[in-house]
Input
Amino acid sequence: MDIEHSERAEDAALDAYSRVVSGVAARVLPSVAALSVRTARGAGAGSAVTIDADGLLLTSAHVVRGARDGVAAFGDGTEARFRVVGADPLSDLAVLRVDEANVPPVELGDADALRIGQLVVAVGNPLGLAGSVTAGVVSGLGRSLPARDGRVTRLIEDVIQTDAALNPGNSGGALADSTGRVVGVNTAVAGYGLGLAVPVNATTRQIIAELTADGRVRRAWLGVGGVPAPLPPEVVARTGQRRGLRVVEVVPGSPAGSAGIYLGDVILSAGGRPVSDGQGLQRLMLGSAIGARLPVTVLRRGALVDVIAVPTELNR
Output
């Protein structure tokens, strides 16, 4: 009886798992397109996901690098030409627009709420196949993925690591949670049985909005470099923060230098948000920070010091 009960329990669990995955597939697949592009480098392919009822699609910037337009093919057989509205290599995100297709948009979730071990489903439309669905779990959070645009290098922070298999052409496809909300954009295969996705969160939404409105993402520049550093116990007790960003470089004449941030200072917060590493500071350096007053609190010789910096625009 115990064996029969165990087998029934396993069957029930498998059925529940299957229902979740098939439900996500049914919800997301109609919104996912296979992309075909042609550039001076040759033909390319990838996936994209519809995020707006007016025909906006989200994909990976590297999928459409060097292209102005291309063809999007959806699972129902619909094909439509798309044009690249804007691409941001430093976040590996691009926004496209199709005018002819009538495709339902997905619901965007919040990757900041993900937990290790949580079920996720990778949905793509690789190489023009009729959709690809693989399931797995979140196996890592908080990873960083280097991204380059010319001479500028930036880390895409809080990248999602998953063991959901990514097939060729899945870049730009959706990573969805168990409710079908898209929490990431599949961007790279990190190794055997390992995939990475750019998170969908408040920062991503701001990038999408800037790409849609202006075709590019403006970034702010502070001119400071640092490394994570532990905070003294008395500062931890006072602030509840265990780490800060120790300043190891201040560019002469930079906004940080003009504000009075010095080598050896430990940045605790900027713009009212805790800063514990370089990614925490980068997260604030989007277009809205350009020319705006940015309050910065630093730890200097055991004392908390407040300064005001005014970031300028990053010129690439």
Q: What stands out?
A: The longest strand covers residues 132-149.
